[in-house]
Fold this protein.
Amino acid sequence: MWQDTVITIVNLVFSYALIIQVIQGFKDKKAYINFQTGLLTTIGLYSIVIAYASLNLWFSTIVGTFNATMWLTLFIQRITYK
């Protein structure tokens, strides 16, 4: 499905941006996002991943799971690095 390809490519771009943000948080020992933003985005992205899987969009599911996990990492940084 072409939709799987488009969603995967866009999510890969998001992944690149998130990796840089997570690394910066670890280097500076500082959280750059709001608690609510991290929590709601993490929950929302994992929900979207479930929807991708239900539609058999497997590449989107894999890359979306990575993005959701990166947001979870940012959320954990928010809790850890006050």
Observations:
- The radius of gyration is 13 Å.
- The mean pLDDT is 95.
